[in-house]
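Table S5 (text form). Sequence records supplied for joint modeling of the two-component complex.
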Amino acid sequence: MKALIIGFGFIGRDLVKAFYEKKDAIRKIDRDFKVIGVSHSKGYLHNDEGLDLQRLQHIKNLEDYGSSYHAGESSLGLIEKSEADLMVEATPTRIKDGEPGLTFIRKALNSGISVVTSNKGPLVVAFHELTRLAEKNGCELLYEGTVAGAIPIFSLVRECLQGDRVLRISGILNGTTNYILSRMYFDEMSFELALKEAQERGISERDSSYDVDGIDAACKVVILANALMNRNVKFEDVEITGIRGITQEALSLAKKSNFAIKLIGTIDSTLEVAPKLVPINHPLCVHGTLNAVHLETDLAKEITLVGYGAGRETVSAVLNDVLTVLRKKKKAA
Amino acid sequence: MKALIIGFGFIGRDLVKAFYEKKDAIRKIDRDFKVIGVSHSKGYLHNDEGLDLQRLQHIKNLEDYGSSYHAGESSLGLIEKSEADLMVEATPTRIKDGEPGLTFIRKALNSGISVVTSNKGPLVVAFHELTRLAEKNGCELLYEGTVAGAIPIFSLVRECLQGDRVLRISGILNGTTNYILSRMYFDEMSFELALKEAQERGISERDSSYDVDGIDAACKVVILANALMNRNVKFEDVEITGIRGITQEALSLAKKSNFAIKLIGTIDSTLEVAPKLVPINHPLCVHGTLNAVHLETDLAKEITLVGYGAGRETVSAVLNDVLTVLRKKKKAA
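The corresponding structure-token record, covering 666 residues in total, follows.
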């Protein structure tokens, strides 16, 4: 298989590193796997014979690779002209219109190229359009990295709970707000100071509103509802309350009764993101930058999955999606 | 596919019910799926045209089904004479020699019949023998229900963490001891009283030593180590300390420092089952009859999976294994 990586931020870079370090395991599934193109907003690398992953993992900017770099050309051009079978889309999230990822994903699927994405934007805007497009073109569309980072919630339901029906989902879906609430809860820090610390430590997005006002969590609620509960919902369908109103007083009252306050996304008869009291002994009650997803199902009853919801660990989810595509295409071949 | 169910205890019975309730979903994978035989220690039902699942789910004893019952005949005979492609083995666990399940599984795999089992015994005694036997005969051997009940830990690692290397596993692997320790911790109950309550509520096995002295958890450690960490270990390799020595004093000291005491199975450079102090904020620190498995991996770093570790929820794991076999055989066909 020939793969493209669209976007060379930390996920693109970490994926190259993982491809290189795990090359023997990958070869066991697909002897001919290679990365033939990598793009960023300013141009792309392209070599149909395969790029040198060892060299690629050590450069900071694509320009530094040397030959094969096409300055000023667009990712769309790379998708069009390459002979890729798989595209990993890891451009920045823009939830308003899903761009530029949405255009890239549409282009790839329409060209019969399977897509693995870690970008929430396109899925929030056009989940059902894109899954139908993938089906129509006989491609895979996998997006494990879009929700709760390294937590493999979509493949868990798809592969490990095949016989279960998901009845309800609730989760801590944003690591930044969980970090802030944990600092306020355990260390009696003010909201402002905890937010500042999160920003300084690189835990918060530059625009803190995206995390703090529950927008990021709401995007994840939309994707979970569409993917795991057969809904057809949009961002506007989520009732959102962020964590700006959480006071030290509220937290210490909660603490006295053995509760914590967590920003919880819920998919039930309604879709909601709001601060909730969670018993400290509940499996969902995890702290720091951890995320947790709690499933209620008909057979297993309750399953909770906990892990890192953002950052470098997300490469685990993206790599798992890539290997899933390799395996499926191998079987189909 | 034609399936046998060996053992008609609560797992066998719940599986029949699940097959019946989910018949439409199963038919989507395999239009010809049927259960052609069900056995218990006193005889078996057999009908190569398929048994009536609706009738089967309402009877308490196989004899009550009516026709097709062969009194006094052995499960081995059923495996030999039927034309099954799949056997669900759900006989009682005996960890000393893995029997009678071990003989049934060997027989099935040698006859090219794929096996799904919820029985720890055969896997503790002969893990590598059986996995090699399955491979040699082109069969599947799946055992999700053997460890931590409804928690799909084996399929999680196999399907959702394909690119990750598991470096360390720790877990609460026995619901009975977790129930006892939770009652002692939260309600200041004595060990004896908590054990008695667990027995009265049907949470403890008849022989409480199996749970309380860590034997059950040690069996699970052996299977996890062999299946997920490429080890070749036996029951004797696990250092085991049970929970009989845990006093009310120890628990209240732990509580004062924000720890709980949990019976933890660990797979690291050594294999161990022993009571450990666990910070109450750690994702592994779950209570009541819940189980939890904490994985440390190279990419995702930390993933914790929480769910019910025994009882009726286990049918989720067994059904998932069955559906996995149906899917694989469909692809291969």
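Note: Chain A touches chain B at residues 18, 22, 25, 144, 150-152, 155-156, 159-164, 280-281, 283, 286-287, 290, 292, 297, 299-308, 313, 315-317, 319-320, 322-324, 327, 331 (CB under 8 Å).
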